[in-house]
Amino acid sequence: MKAAKLAFSLICLAILAGNIFTMSRWSEARGVYDDICYLRQAHLFQRFGAGGLDTNAIRDDDRYFEGRMKEIAFAEWRDPIRWPCHNPMPSGKVVMQYPPGTGFLLALFPEGHQVVPLYIAASLIVCGLALLGIFLARTPLSISAAGVFGALAIYLMINPAKASYSVAPTMALCAVTGFLTALWLSRDKRSVLLIALIGLLLGVSVTFRLPNALLAAGYFLFLGIPFLWTRSLATFVRGFAFGAGVLVGMAPTLSAQAINAGSALATTYGSADVVAPAFDLAVFGQYLRDMQFVLIVLAIGATLLLLRSGESHVRQAALVVAGNLVVNLGFFMSHPIFTPYYVVPIAMLSLWTLSFAPLLRPAAVHEAAPAGSEPASLEALPR
Fold first, then answer.
1. Distance (Å, whole) CA 157 – CA 221
2. Which pLDDT tens digit goes with each residue over 68-111?
3. How far apart are the C-alpha atoms of 146 and 4, rounded to whole Å?
4. H-run or E-run covering 379
5. Cα 200 from Cα 103, distance rounded (Å)
6. Burial class of residue 61 (count of CB atoms within 10 Å of its CB; 0-12, 13-18, 19+)
7. Could you tell me if 311 and 358 are in contact, meaning their C-beta atoms sit under 8 angstroms apart?
8. Cβ 360 vs Cβ 375: under 8 Å
């Protein structure tokens, strides 16, 4: 089994090396509207610090965005009302529609060299979690599953993650959150701090993409339904800690909406993006022909398989994922707009959770394992 682990680890590292080589050749001047707008976010943070949350078009007094528009021959570069990714607010401001997280991360790197370091950092996190899954696997089947999934997860950091700068950090957070979810469910005593951290990370993910707020749906169902049934203090505390974590993580997004849209609960997106759900066969057909459909099938199949597990923490992980899949797929399948990455976050969060759940065994099970058996959880690792 050590040879298999080494082989899959080398495959993952080889894919990572190939990704880094490919990423190092990327240009930040693709001419894509979303790219330019995220880079404007980063520019505002680098100029104004926390004041970069204010994306009012009048703050382009250094002509940064206008220059970017000229570079791609955008005809109406003088008129902020016509700028891509910007929308007029009732206050009269013309502001950027995106939440601030992606621009903030890009701002951590020097201008002109921002995208490649962001993608490499996110890929390193994903690869690290993939290698951890391979290390924790205990049987030939689990080693193969962890290795194949890890290789797939690393590959996806190129395609479809390249489609939007917001996808790369989202993918990294989904990997970390999936691992922590499985870890939390594998503990005999469910840590309040750990579930609060999971909530915090899911809240932070909203600063990259607003629809990431739906990633917390399955957790709220998993924590909320038992409380309504039992009304126990322990269940309430766990749910409150999770909700508080989500709220704290969303604070930058709520602040940005208050500054730009006039209210923390008001959206900066235009009417084209804020539409009532309506199932459209054309949109559904696009998902059927896309790589996302494969990820959805894998997530649903793994969920149904693990719901039949004899280990309660594995079944509970599958329940969290099931609730999340129902809410998220229900939303995106009834959303009239298709992109090649809309359901990637929920699919990857689901698959990371389900891949780690069988690998992290409760302490009581570990103590009962035969002497000399391979370490089955993080508690068994050398300290």
1. 30
2. 999 999 999 999 999 999 999 999 999 999 999 999 999 999 99
3. 11
4. none
5. 19
6. exposed
7. yes
8. no
